[in-house]
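user: Kindly work through both lines:
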Amino acid sequence: MKDDPLNPISKYARDKVEEHGDQTPIGWLHRDERYTEKLATPDVTIADLIGDVDPIKAASLKLPYSDERVIHFGLVPRSHRGIFVINDLPDLQARIQVALFNILQEGDIQIRGFKLRMPLDIQFVFTANPEDYTNRGSIVTPLKDRIDSQIITHYPESIEIGKKITKQEAALTPAQQEGVEVYDLAKDLIEQIAMEARDSEYVDAKSGVSARLTISAYENLVSSAERRMLISGESKSSVRVTDFVGVIPSITGKVELVYEGEQEGPGIVANNLVGKAIRSQFTQYFPDPEKERKKEKGNPYEPIKEWFEKGNMIDLIFDADEKTYRKELKAIPGLEGLVDKFQKTSHEGFKYFLMEFALFGLAEYSMLSKHQLNQGMQFKDLFTSMFNMPEMGDDE
């Protein structure tokens, strides 16, 4: 028990103070030791939270069960003068929730029928997901009545806030932090994917899209770049847009789909969310292709489009080393000039990321065709790709 030496509530502490008086030994507790957390699971018992009679202690001390000294206190009494948190409160069985009534209201605890008056000084905090109230359990009404305040949280209201949360929570090794460079645009795309998922007609809005999606997606993105770095034998690397293929498992494992989404397939929905994120961010870096398409002259995307219309194509291989990656992008006429015109940068690595980003963006705006290969992404002319689609029964 974390008793107050000036106001002890346990028999042990009272006896100590009575025995030693002003010479009673006291200790200082760090704030980390004043915090207790318990996940509400079906196997949680009253003994875990409140306590139980310890028959071995009763036998060894030769005391009756009605004596307070034979009680083994649970997590709640041991959190006296601290903060006690129960996560996912609706998952706690109703009969266990009932045991919290008197603690929250009167400060009484009852163990095996023995009533103890212990004015516990505890700040209780409970957490619950909104959907849990109906799907996985509920908070019993008398307990809700004893909870002083309900604070309803929300998703990050901006990409900047989302990036701060992701950076804080992402578990990256020192080697990853030193060896893999992640551009701000890539971080923005991660947060944009979550925003697109929250607005998607294929994703169950009631279940929601938590920050765990962006955290896991960010970790997977860095891991994809690190894997390529190790395969190519390079000491440093930076993320690429093709690395977002590693983000797909983070999406499929984190979102609940409605019936229409299940019909589409988790993989297709996840790829579409990545595509929508690229499309949303594209116009913040380059002119809107929809508006430029209507112009008779001066379309900055025309040189790129014309090169692909001549039958040229490009394969961006996932595991390609940096030299091969840059050579492929530089071979496309007009692509480097597009970046230099609208996003001039002295950072060579980011320049090529923008060139790759431009290709993906033009594909999302249906100016190019994009296909995923076993080992990479292929870009070519949209109409040529449509006319060369395999017929029914043909092998792809």
